[in-house]
Amino acid sequence: MQTKTTIVGLTSFCTYLCTYFFDLTMNNFEQYLAVAAVIWLDGVFGIWAGVKKEGFKTYKALKITKNTFIWLVILTAILMVEKGFAGTAWLSEVIIVPFMILQIISALKNASMAGLIKTKELNNILDRIDKHKGFRE
After folding, report:
1. In the chain, what are the helix, strand and coil shares in percent, each to the nearest 5?
2. How far is CA 23 from the centre of its chain?
3. What is the distance between the alpha carbons of residues 117 and 123, in angstroms, rounded to a whole number?
4. Is the dihedral of CA 128, 131, 133, 136 positive or negative?
5. Residue 13: how many other CB atoms lie within 10 Å
6. Is the dihedral angle over the CA atoms 109, 111, 115, 116 positive or is it negative?
7. Which comes out higher in pLDDT, residue 129 or 42?
8. CA distances, 127 to each of 14, 81, 98, 99, 110 (Å)
9. What is the pLDDT of residue 128?
C-alpha cells in the first residue's frame, strides 16, 4: 500500500510539473522561438564564417546547442518569476531584449565575415544604429 501511494504521489507531482512547464511554454512560445531563432541565426552564420576562416570546428558548433539550452532555461526562470509575482511583467523584456539585440548584431557581423553581407552594407547598418557617432566615410 505504501509503494502505491508513493508512486501515485510521485506521478502526480511529475504530472503537475510537466503541465506547469507546458502551460508556461505554450503561453510564451513566441519568446522561446525568438530566443532560439536568434541564437541559431548567429550560430549558423558563425559556423559559415568559421569554415571560411579556419575550417569546421565541432566544439564551436556544439556551443550553439549549449547556448540555446542555457538561454531557454534563463527565459523559463524569468517567466516563472513574472507569473509568480504581480508587477514583474516587464522582467523578460528588460533582460532578454538586450541579449537579442547583441545576438542580432553578432549575426550580422558573422554574415559579413562569411561573405553574405558586404562590409559596406554592414557598416551602413551599424552606423544607423549609432547615429550620434556619425557615419563612416
Report:
1. 85, 0, 15
2. 19
3. 10
4. positive
5. 10
6. negative
7. 42
8. 51, 37, 18, 20, 17
9. 77
- Give the list of residues 6+ apart from residue 57 with CB closer than 8 angstroms, or none: 50
Res 131: pLDDT: 66
* Distance from C-alpha of 85 to C-alpha of 57, rounded to nearest angstrom: 43
pLDDT score, position 132: 60
pTM: 0.79
pLDDT tens for each residue of 66-103:
999 999 999 999 999 999 898 888 988 899 999 999 89
Three-state DSSP at 79 gives helix
Q: Quick one: cell of 7?
A: 508512486
